[in-house]
Structures are given as structure tokens and as C-alpha cells.
Design brief:
Length: 343
């Protein structure tokens, strides 16, 4: 087991750390949270950073963790840690101190950076190179702690930006942003090479993210135009092994799925095909729980005035997580993660 730091994007307070845990579990690895701080998650896990950095939507980077300590003890903790042994000899290093939001307003981060670099240079004769370092040492200041790490893998945040809706061939106002769609795919513990289902797929925002991590995306929608859009978007993203079906998610028969993540219609823009929203949830949850393989996960959104925990009663689903999200001024919704727990 190794200790890993995940420097989180801070776009949401609870989804990014849960996404990390979901992604690690989706890779079949163990994960124990050691500390959760603002924009930082430290875990003990048998996962290697290079095995998951490409599947995270709300993380900046993953690093090897060498301690979490009070800022007054920082230099001493670095001196006593394995960090120095981890650095190969005669290489170029960089040291950066990152203050999260407005924590530690009185700390001079430049001065602290120099103190950390001096402590390291005292022991080994490294060259400091901020542009092309072989090893990047990061000190994150968050809440009342400093977190010491060597960065291992950076998430390609630009690639996520490039997948934003306006960049896709088919557009619709109901479509989801790629970082949240990716997080939902991870919350659903979608295995690479597994069968993934989105039964309210719209123009494919979630299907694209599931396809890009290597799963086989299957989408359904009641509206044929949406499916035409999904096809264009999936092709444009280079995804070929997908399947799209036209129909009402409550009536379709789906193949057993390894993961389901979905975003049913919720307001004026996304059509419900004339049905009451609550009826859609009541009628679709039994279908989805039946479709899900045992011990696999369903990640589903619902407007905050629908209590999905109550709606799911009677289905073989256990609620694992619930996250709150504000979509816009007049719409708040929850993101639920259920596990199929019994027959
Ligand atoms: C919020 S949108 C999904 C957006 C999608 N996640 C994306 O990122 O593009 C909801 C979709 O559900 C579809 N829909 C509404 N009622 C349905 C039903 N009973 N069965 C299947 N699809 C339905 C709508 O046509 C709409 O495309």
C-alpha cells in the first residue's frame, strides 16, 4: 500500500474526493482515506497513479505523499521523511508551495519555498529547475495543514476543456459538462472494458466519458433527434464500440450492465415525453436495478424536491452516497450513488 495525494479541482465540495475513491475501486484496487482537506485527498491504496490519472475528471494531479503536518513542523518533517531518498541523485527538481483558496494568509509562500528548497539542497546537491524538473515537490497549504508530495501524474485538464459542449458537433442545452459526466462515470465504478448504460442519454455527454475510459457505452433515449446528436458526438470523440437505442427507458429491455450513470430529464429544457417526473423515477428504478449486475453501481441525478432514497424503496439498491449540486439559480439537484446489493 502506498500513500497518495490527490490535488482536487475544487469545482465541488464532495464530488471530487468521492470520484477518486470510485475510480480506484473501479480499477479493482483498495482505498482507505487518510485525510480529506479542502481540495486535497490523501489515501492509502495499492493503485499506481499511472493506472488512474487518465480517468479522473475533477483532479489536477496525483502524487506520492510524504506527510501531512502543521506548518511549523514542515521543515523538520521533510528532513525526517523518505522524500530525500525518493529523489534520484544529481537531478533537477522544482519546489512549489501552493496555497488553497485563502488559507494561511500570513505565510510568505516564496520564503517558505526557499526554506524547503534549502533543506533539500542541504542534503543533496540538486539543481533547481522550475521549467523542466525531473521531480516536482509540492507543498499544499490547506485548512490548518501542509501536505508534502512529489507529483507523479498530471490530469490533462486541457483535454477536458476541449470536450466542452460548444466544441462538439451536436449541441443541446440539457447536455452535461464533461468533468461532471466523467465524475459520474467514476462514481458508478465503471470498469474499463465493461458494459456501461445511460438510459436517458440525450446527446451523449455521459456516454462519451464512459467510452473514453474504455468501456462499451450503450445509450437509450425516447427522442430520435437526441440519438442522432449522440451518434455524431460519439463518432467525433473517436468512440466506435457504442450502441444506441430509441425508446422509453421504463419499457426497454437492456443487457446486464457493469455500471449505469444517468441524468434523467429535469426541467423545461429536457423533455419528459409528457410524463410526470416522479413517475419516471418510480418506474425506471426497478428496470435499472434489474439491469445492473450484482454489486455494481448506479449513479443517477434527481431534482432536490424528489427524494430518490424513498423512491428506491423496494428496489434491491443500497444508497452509498448523495451529493448536492446547484445547476442554476432555480434548480438544485442531488447525485445519488446506489449499489445493487441483492436479488
Ligand atoms: C437531461 S437529458 C440527458 C442529457 C445527457 N446526459 C447529455 O449529457 O447529453 C435527459 C434526456 O432524457 C430523455 N428522455 C425523457 N424521457 C425519457 C424516457 N422515458 N426514456 C428515455 N429517455 C427519455 C430526453 O429526451 C433527454 O434527452
Amino acid at each position: 500500500m502506498r500513500r497518495l495525494t490527490f490535488f482536487l479541482s475544487g469545482e465541488h465540495s464532495t464530488v471530487p474526493p468521492s470520484e477518486v475513491v470510485g475510480a480506484i475501486e473501479a480499477e479493482g484496487c483498495e482505498c482507505r482515506a487518510i485525510d480529506e482537506l479542502d481540495q486535497v485527498l490523501v489515501v492509502e491504496s495499492d493503485i499506481k497513479p499511472r493506472e488512474i490519472f487518465d480517468r479522473l475528471g475533477m483532479t489536477h494531479w496525483i502524487g506520492e505523499n510524504f506527510g501531512i503536518c502543521d506548518i511549523d513542523d514542515l521543515i523538520e518533517v521533510i528532513g525526517n521523511s523518505d522524500l530525500l531518498d525518493f529523489l534520484p541523485h544529481s537531478r533537477k527538481i522544482s519546489v512549489r508551495v501552493k496555497r488553497v483558496r485563502k488559507y494561511f494568509p500570513n505565510i510568505d509562500t516564496q520564503k517558505l519555498t526557499k526554506e524547503v528548497a534549502d533543506e533539500i539542497l542541504d542534503t543533496y546537491d540538486y539543481e533547481v529547475d522550475l521549467e523542466h524538473p525531473d521531480r516536482e515537490i509540492s507543498i499544499i497549504l490547506t485548512e490548518d495543514k501542509s501536505v508534502i508530495s512529489i507529483i507523479q501524474n498530471r490530469v490533462d485538464r486541457e483535454a477536458i476543456e476541449e470536450r466542452r459542449p460548444p466544441e462538439r458537433p451536436a449541441l443541446h442545452p440539457s447536455t452535461m459538462q464533461p468533468n461532471l459526466a466523467r465524475a459520474m462515470v467514476n462514481l458508478a465504478r465503471t470498469p474499463r472494458n465493461g458494459k456501461f448504460l445511460d438510459p436517458f442519454c440525450g446527446i451523449g455527454g455521459i456516454l462519451i466519458e464512459a467510452g473514453l475510459i474504455g468501456s462499451e457505452p450503450i445509450g437509450a433515449d425516447i427522442n430520435k433527434n437526441m440519438l442522432d446528436g449522440a451518434r455524431k458526438n460519439l463518432e467525433d470523440a473517436g468512440i466506435r464500440n457504442y450502441e444506441l437505442r430509441e425508446g422509453d427507458a421504463r419499457e426497454l429491455e437492456f443487457e446486464k450492465a457493469d455500471a449505469i450513470a444517468t441524468d434523467p430529464p429535469y426541467g423545461r429544457q429536457a423533455s419528459t415525453g409528457g410524463s410526470e417526473l416522479i413517475d419516471i423515477y418510480k418506474e425506471v428504478l426497478p428496470v435499472l436495478s434489474e439491469t445492473l449486475k450484482m454489486d455494481r453501481y448506479l449513479c443517477i441525478t434527481a431534482p432536490s424536491d424528489i427524494n430518490l432514497e424513498e423512491t428506491a424503496e423496494g428496489c434491491p439498491l443500497d444508497l452509498e452516497e448523495k451529493h448536492q449540486e446547484r445547476v442554476h439559480k432555480s434548480l438544485a439537484r442531488n447525485i445519488y450513488v446506489f449499489r445493487r446489493s441483492r436479488d
